[in-house]
Amino acid sequence: MPPRTALITGAASGLGLAIAEAMAEAGYRLLLADLEQSDGAAVARRLDASFIAADLARADDCQRLCDRALEASGRVDILVNNAGLQRVSPIEDFADEDWERLIAVMLTAPFRLTRSLWPAMKASGWGRIINMASIHALVASPHKAAYVAAKHGLLGLTRTAALEGGEHGITVNAICPAYVRTPLVENQIADQARVHGLAEDEVVEKIMLAPAAVKRLIEPAEVAQLALFLCSDAAASISGAALPVDGGWTAR
Ligand code: NAD
Fold it and tell me: Which of 49, 118, 170, 248 qualifies as a cystine partner to 30, CB 3.0-4.6 A?
């Protein structure tokens, strides 16, 4: 059988990059998408993958991405909706444009990509959709109104698509990590320090790791291994799940 083809969004950095590396090593054919053209293209060259630049906040880019992905490979077996961003601000100061961009990239784009790639997955009788949600799909934290709302919504999309996909061999799951060592988290430390009135070095210990049993940041490769497993035939009965990789955060 030819290798399966996976489209990974937000593959230029962090978790998307780690998933792309793990999947390249496992022999998948990869189509990588990101807003960051030069980083994305460099990753694609290194992993012998194709790169498609896209701003997933835009409907036309989402459509173009899916059209090009289907043209390039005939089919997309696996969709990893991973691209994301964060804004940390109290509700009263939360700007409309930040709200709209977070919802567009992390909730509306996964819906649009799922909708566009669904008919081909359905026709082939096999598909895997992995939505990179967050622990913030399950619990909230202050000052992250748009992020928490987008991720809770993404879990709703995951469950609905899982119910529709079951009879067609399509599984749809959400991975829910707590704080992973990526640029998204590194960039957030200064913002969190400002809104909580803490020094930056106190943020990791007092805010990020406070609810967790395992007191360290998660490594991107740990999450990538779970994504890889979800793509396998061994995971065919896991669907509609919200899988925490959270160091025990939600155990309490
Ligand atoms: P990151 O900032 O390292 O990578 C995010 C990638 O998404 C970047 O390459 C960025 O260019 C891309 N992106 C952002 N906006 C885009 C857009 N409009 N169009 C296309 N690409 C866009 O962050 P990360 O930590 O790797 O986050 C990846 C995903 O994991 C996000 O959905 C995030 O919410 C989720 N997540 C991260 C953590 C964490 O602690 N790092 C925890 C839980 C969930």
Answer: 49
The pLDDT value recorded for residue 21 is 98
- CATH number of the domain encompassing residue 100: 3.40.50.720
Q: Could you read off the pLDDT of 191-213 as tens digits, one per residue?
A: 888 888 999 889 999 989 999 99
Q: Supply the pLDDT for residue 188.
A: 87
Q: What is the pLDDT of residue 150?
A: 99
User: DSSP secondary structure string, 37-81?
Assistant: HHHHHHHHHHHT-EEEE--TTSHHHHHHHHHHHHHHHS---EEEE
Whether 134 lines ligand 1, by a CB cut-off of 6 Å, is yes
Cα→Cα distances 19→9, 26, 101, Å: 10, 10, 24
Distance 183 CA to ligand 1 centre (A): 8
Decide if 210 is inside a domain: no
Task: Please check whether residue 184 lies inside any domain of the structure.
Answer: no
- Confirm whether 147 is a catalytic residue: yes
The pTM of this model reads 0.97
Q: Structural domain of residue 230, as residue ranges?
A: 5-179+219-244
User: Would you state the pLDDT for residue 33?
Assistant: 98
What backbone phi and psi angles, to 5 degrees, belong to 99? -55, -50
Which residue of the set 99, 147, 179, 249 is catalytic?
147
Number of domains comprising the chain: 1
Please tell me if the CB atom of residue 139 comes closer than 6 angstroms to any atom of ligand 1: no
Residue 132 domain flag: yes
**CB 208 less than 6 A from any atom of ligand 1:** no
CA distance 44 to 20: 9
pLDDT at 9 over 80: yes
Ligand 1 atom nearest to CA at 81: 32
pLDDT tens across 171-190, in order?
999 999 999 999 999 988 88
